[in-house]
Amino acid sequence: MGISHRNRQKFVLLGLGIALTSSLYPGSVEAQNCYMITASGQRINLGSICGAKPPQANLFRIPIKRRSSKTPVIEVTFNNRYTFEMILDTGASGTVITQEMANLLKLKPTGQITAEIADGSQVKFATSVVRSISVNGAVVNNVEVAIAKGGNLGLLGHDFFGKYNVRILENAIELQPR
């Protein structure tokens, strides 16, 4: 069983249209946009031909808003209500928020820790617990955070992303569950 001459022309023209569209519009090679519609209206996924990769399950892609000393700054939401810009600090074991953030979240100190900071010195921080920390769908519940008396930005630490493989790209961060 072969393709008739008339149907072969339609198929070739359709193939040429896909090739031209893919080269003119790079976004069309994404898995959800690389398809062919048959004469009967059936949609056929051509993602493997276009070279598109299917989206990964549970991959959280977080836009980088800007950088502070080359370190990514992202938006982080606390208790499903307040969103703050924070530094993603891959070297920090815990999350540190500013006093201003703690005030807005109505946090009261529940403890105290002594932590070693980047320069090697020891600093005491008050601590409290937030109900949730979320970033673009990735969520951690009941997290103890340190409260810094000074500073403009909080630090999102390993207590948030510790269960993820972290990939820092030019304009985004990817979190993939381990």
TrEMBL record:
Signal peptide: 1-31
GO molecular function, one term: aspartic-type endopeptidase activity
UniProt KW Signal keyword: yes
Matching Pfam families: gag-asp_proteas
GO terms under biological process: proteolysis
Gene3D superfamilies: Acid Proteases
InterPro entries from the UniProt entry: Peptidase_A2_cat, Peptidase_aspartic_dom_sf, Retropepsin-like_bacterial
Domain Peptidase A2: 84-160
Record bears the keyword DNA damage: no
Keywords annotated in UniProt: Hydrolase, Protease, Signal
The protein's name: Aspartyl protease
Gene source species: Merismopedia glauca CCAP 1448/3
Lineage: Bacteria, Bacillati, Cyanobacteriota, Cyanophyceae, Synechococcales
